[in-house]
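Researcher: I'd like a candidate sequence for this fold, 244 residues long. If you have to choose between options at a position, lean toward the conservative one.
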């Protein structure tokens, strides 16, 4: 178990509730569940199952820290102030993203082995961060795969489309979000084209879009971000080594 990682487990027989550090965790009818740990998750966590008889089963989890790629830029200031156009548009964009993540959909994609949605050079790592004159910037919330405009983007696992942007967002460009069930979702940024619609059920390996350079991107690439609830996680840990 590590920062940015995901864990699948099975509850004890007769479990009626499961919590992680006091927050309820959904459990599938067959007793399987999923939990995850964000980039800055602490060193430990408590997983507690309560059975229908009132028995309590506790597991103290140790979460391994990771060494993130930190780049110090002592001569450069942090990014400039956002433009008036960005400030005007951003609240509505964030509202769409947050509403999409609150949707309750049913999918078993979380049970599958995830595949890479695109292949190519990994140009950005999850968790990396720049320090500008001693002031930390935001950490990189996903993994970037460089590729040509129009290269296919595939569903990494089964899921349901919860957001297919009708127009480019200021940062994300053409944004597509897929929910894999149990609170686990993927976001695909900077697409040149989205080929699925809101509410579509997608299957692992199905084409869902094409790589682009929309939004705030310096070159054509796919940014693949993943979240479990409010925890940002590392897609590379789910997909494993990329087969070129």
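Model: Candidate sequence:
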């Amino acid at each position: 178990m590590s920062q940015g990682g995901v864990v699948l487990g099975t509850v004890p027989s007769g479990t009626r509730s499961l919590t992680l550090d006091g927050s309820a965790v959904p459990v599938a009818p067959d007793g399987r569940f999923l939990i995850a740990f964000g980039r800055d998750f602490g060193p430990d966590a408590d997983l507690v199952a309560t059975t229908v008889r009132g028995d309590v089963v506790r597991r103290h989890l140790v979460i391994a820290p990771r060494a993130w790629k930190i780049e110090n830029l002592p001569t450069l200031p942090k990014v400039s102030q956002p433009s008036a156009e960005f400030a005007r548009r951003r609240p509505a964009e964030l509202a769409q993203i947050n509403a999409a993540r609150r949707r309750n959909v049913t999918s078993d994609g979380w049970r599958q082995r995830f595949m890479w949605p695109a292949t190519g050079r990994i140009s950005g790592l999850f968790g990396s961060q720049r320090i500008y004159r001693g002031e930390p910037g935001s950490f990189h919330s996903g993994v970037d795969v460089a590729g040509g405009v129009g290269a296919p983007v595939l569903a990494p696992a089964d899921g349901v489309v919860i957001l297919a942007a009708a127009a480019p967002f200021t940062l994300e460009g053409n944004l597509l979000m897929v929910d894999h069930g149990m609170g686990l979702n993927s976001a695909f940024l900077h697409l040149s084209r989205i080929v699925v619609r809101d509410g579509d059920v997608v299957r692992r390996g199905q084409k869902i879009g094409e790589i682009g350079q929309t939004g705030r991107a310096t070159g054509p690439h796919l940014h693949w971000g993943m979240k479990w609830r409010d925890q940002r996680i590392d897609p590379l840990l789910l997909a494993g080594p990329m087969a070129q």
